[in-house]
């Protein structure tokens, strides 16, 4: 029989409130230190984030004010439908994003391992990680939702109480899907640990299929009457599926619409506002109930789930040399072999890193889905050409996020393995060139296919498609050159996390230069094309016809010069950063 | 102080720890030895509550680590093989966080933090952010944090990794002093010289089974070798096919 020693006087188990207070203080200290180091070490990044967020917010606000003005005149009921569609979509996204973030925070982080060995309640650790996950997953919702709801209030001339209740409405709403995501996550890990990836995959595929079906249902048959009253009517009828009274998104939409209601004198309608408060109470009550349920589940299942997950034996899979690796490794002359072997290694790492290729597939897949749906509308030539160039810019911007996030840190990460590469008979230049080729080859194929898809769906002429493809190739070359060149010029050899490397000064600068490069290429190529189309329209319909220099720019020579400028810009963006990067990398001392 | 009661831990079809029964009394320094994959880390992770045993029970100061984890952790200090800190906290802030977590009164916490900062010679960098620390500095800070509340049981997983010779000496002296005062130490290590120098008893695990449990003198007796070093005895035990 073991005798239990009394707990020593010096230590004690903390009451729940003290634990909560301690974690609040911890989060505040960590947040303050993070902000302070950003202010001292990453001012450019912080300024850009603040500036771009403010610009994004203002642009969205303006767009929503215009949109609500138009819809208000069209049909007031439409707004309820749009709110429901918007908030129900966000609700689904929040369930998934918070669930995934809670999973990584509670079960995969080193912090969880530390906290689980301290005398702290499992539900307190959950609450701590939940708040972190909710903050990360909902900032997008706040950034999108706040201009939307503020614009609605302004257009509807809502009284001040509407603006006061906006934040409580949004916060209480966010708690509900975030709690649901956490509950699902805790239950899956505790009781179905082996099925968690399958469950997540089934969930994601299910949501994607529903989204696909909705897009298809909306656009597939609308070829002639797109954007007409009939099209709107049919679309709204299909969207009404999101108007479910049991959905928190409906409570939020209805509550806000009621809160914004004003009487003929422009003052608040007391009954409506009281109704809004009832919806707010409903949201808060559900948020609290779900939080309690999630906390209770964490108490009984978190430690068990963590243990179950730690018990999993990683599957040992025999990795075979794929045909692609083999072919690439043996291709060409023997002198280029080190370069090819480096390329094989990078493609192999890319293939085995699910976080890289899954994001690649998701973003380019969604873009492809959007391009496929472009066929649904009938455009005139000038409009189609403009959309074609905008799509080209979007493809470039998405590629630039990948080159900054995944390609830019490659040299820094390679630098950490200098003890391997430094001992091999590989010239440093070849390392930089291999990264460039990896990025260019990996980017140019999907991007060119996407641009071809977009242009085909828009029904653009072959000549214009060829121009777009040339621009796309130049974009891929330039973006790869910028990312690899900047990465070699400003490597961070101390950091092991690619996300931290890419979010530093060099990564931010690379992203900004990439964005400017895309803008220059697209504008330089698009202006002559657009003027050329205006020239044609001017001859046919007597509309605005460019004259003088503008007319020359819109002619065949203008188009040729535009393309030549794109090629020169592309080559400059490729080789100047690469040359600077190679120079710096040769001098680097690991 | 520490009781493993017929503890078994399986990973799927593989048994990582098989029917482990050990009792470690107050004031003993116990060293768990064994080759890679023997089950040492699994045993430590079960002892600190990160893993639940598939069968059996583990008690720390009478508290079951699965049924009453908070009570068990109140008596426990743990130094993992890879130190975990908050990058954006200073060493001193981290020590305060741990002291608060154990509910230590303010005055006592202040004196204990100062004591550990002095013991582990942390003063020079205690007010810098942990993100700037070397591995050795992090390890010393984790040691300091694990001893703040004067635990009755200290669990160490490869404690000397990353420490310079001076820090190793500090840790050894401290462990000797604390065990004399009654603290129980459960240590997993590959450093046989340290086990030989410090351990009251050793356990040698091979493929999840405890092949030997006893003092080094008993080990010599059991293996019946003329060898004088623990290294020879260890290699003999871990390479032989016999069970304990």
Could you characterize what this model shows?
The complex is a heterodimer of chains A (590) and B (244). By secondary structure, chain A is mainly alpha-helical. Chain A folds into two domains: 43-308, no CATH class; 335-587, no CATH class. Chain A is built from 21 helices and no strands. In chain A, helix 3 (77-107) packs across helix 9, helix 14 runs parallel beside helix 17 and helix 16 (428-458) packs antiparallel against helix 21. The longest helix of chain A has 41 residues, at 270-310. Chain A is globular, with a radius of gyration of 28 Å. Chain B has 244 residues and is α/β, with parallel strands linked by helices. Chain B has helices at 40-47, 69-74, 91-101, 106-119, 135-147, 165-180, 192-198, 216-223, 230-239, and strands spanning 2-11, 14-24, 29-33, 55-60, 63-64, 76-79, 153-157, 184-188, 201-206, 209-214. In chain B, the strands form two sheets. Chain B has a six-stranded mixed beta sheet with strand order 6-7-8-3-9-10, with helices on both faces. Chain B has a four-stranded antiparallel beta sheet with strand order 2-1-4-5. Chain B has two domains: 1-75 and 151-244, Rossmann fold (3-Layer(aba) Sandwich), CATH 3.40.50; 82-150, no CATH class.
Radius of gyration of chain A in whole Å, from Cα?
A: 28 Å
Order of helices and strands of chain B: EEEHEEHEHHHEHEHEEHH
Biggest beta sheet summary of chain B: 6 strands, mixed
SS class of chain A? mainly alpha
Shape, per Cα inertia axes of chain A? globular
Whole-number tally of structural domains of chain B = 2
Query: Helicity of chain A, in percent?
Result: over 70%
CATH topology of the largest domain in chain B: Rossmann fold
User: How does the overall form of chain B come out from the CA principal axes?
Assistant: globular
- The N- to C-terminal Cα distance of chain A equals 60 Å
Largest sheet of chain A: none
- Reading side by side through the largest sheet of chain B, how are the strands ordered? 6-7-8-3-9-10
Count of structural domains of chain A: 2
Order of helices and strands of chain A: HHHHHHHHHHHHHHHHHHHHH
Estimated share of beta-strand residues of chain B: 15-25%
